[in-house]
């Protein structure tokens, strides 16, 4: 009788444990931020920008609502866009937030969406790290560390704008 109870216990244990061990990734069901970085610039440069990849592994749409950093007086969510005469412009994102649909990835990158640091309080020196607090509608607050990289590592040089 003890063997039957033991077998039953092991069978139940296996049925409960097996789904946790198969499929997906260790972070499935979560919102993740990868490869946060910013471009180096002297403190005299008024603004800077941060870039990153946001992956929504959950089954629920989310939105990046805001960001903050002690390295900046003000932080806004921005986008680059094409103005008249094929000139690039920069503005706060329409609606004030960046949607991240369930199961999708949104890349904040040079020449596109980014986190804008207005009135920098520190020099962005290559190799330094800056903490950023991101606020998502559903995932809540998330702290990320942005590594400051040499400007030559970016794919587009937006002279003087930092974005």
Describe this structure as you would to a colleague:
The chain has a single domain (31-153), classed as PCu(A)C copper chaperone (Immunoglobulin-like, Sandwich). Strands 1, 2, 3, 4, 5, 6, 7, 8, 9 and 10 form a ten-stranded mixed β-sheet that branches. It contains one helix and ten strands. It has 163 residues and is mainly β. Strand 1 and strand 2 form a beta hairpin. Helices cover 12% and strands 45% of the residues. It has one helix spanning 2-21, and strands at residues 31-39, 48-56, 62-68, 72-82, 88-92, 98-100, 105-108, 114-120, 129-136, 140-149.
| Oligomeric state of this protein | single chain
User: In total, how many domains does the architecture comprise?
Assistant: 1
Please bin the fraction of helical residues.
10-25%
What is the average of the pLDDT values? 82
- Give the uncertain stretches in residue-range form: 5-27, 155-162
User: What is the strand content?
Assistant: 35-45%
Shape: globular
Which class best fits the helix and strand makeup? mainly beta
Distance between the termini: 71 Å
How many beta-strand segments?
A: 10
What is the name of the CATH class? Mainly Beta
Rg over CA atoms, rounded to whole Å, is: 21 Å
Order of helices and strands: HEEEEEEEEEE
Q: Biggest β-sheet: count, sense, barrel?
A: 10 strands, mixed
Q: Tell me the CATH topology.
A: Immunoglobulin-like
Q: CATH homologous superfamily, by name?
A: PCu(A)C copper chaperone
Give the CATH architecture: Sandwich
Number of helical stretches of at least 4 residues: 1
